[in-house]
Known about the structure:
Layout: H1 2-12, H2 20-23, E1 33-34, E2 44-51, E3 56-63, H3 79-87
Antiparallel strand pairs: 1-3, 2-3
Amino acid sequence: xxxxxxxxxxxxxxxxxxxxxxxxxxxxxxxxxxxxxxxxxxxxxxxxxxxxxxxxxxxxxxxxxxxxxxxxxxxxxxxxxxxxxxxxxx
Length: 90
């Protein structure tokens, strides 16, 4: 079901802005975030999360074994998308 929703969003280019409370939360799946020192040992993708107190999007390394995060979380494919979804709240 989640995969179907993601496919529909990508195909129709729908975008919904996140609630400001979601932009304040760090991704809850901490086991999916790869530390900088371990980046060579784990397959990962580079993603961005909004750091509310610094008003900045930060690079994170998201483990591939976790799959794609849900579209309504503070976890973005690009820095531009991160700022467009969460930068306006700050």
